[in-house]
Amino acid sequence: MARGGPNKGELTKDQRISEEYARMKDLFAAMAENELRFCDPLLQNAAFMKVTLEDLQQAINENGVTDQYQNGANQSGTKASADLQAYNSLAKVYNALMEKLSNRLPKMIKQSRLAALRDE
Asked: Which among 89, 34, 93, 88 has a CA at the least distance from the CA of 65?
């Protein structure tokens, strides 16, 4: 956390999600109030997904992208890790959700808000 508080490793997952949700809500504050209320559950889901993607990235960095498997006595090999598969699936959904949310922003604000998201 850049504001002098504990770093991300010291926060619980729920705390990290809350911080990300607050950051996203601030970035999308330019929406009309009724639209922001409509999008609020989407922002909560996006915050959860972003934090989960960060956790999956860390697991992939620590454990690699492949797992060994053994099916019976004669069948073994490597396969994509479960973390990598989960990451790829979640990343697709997260990117689609963020695109839908960004399309709801007023055109003038969209570029600066998306740049802020990208730079975090």
From this structure: 88
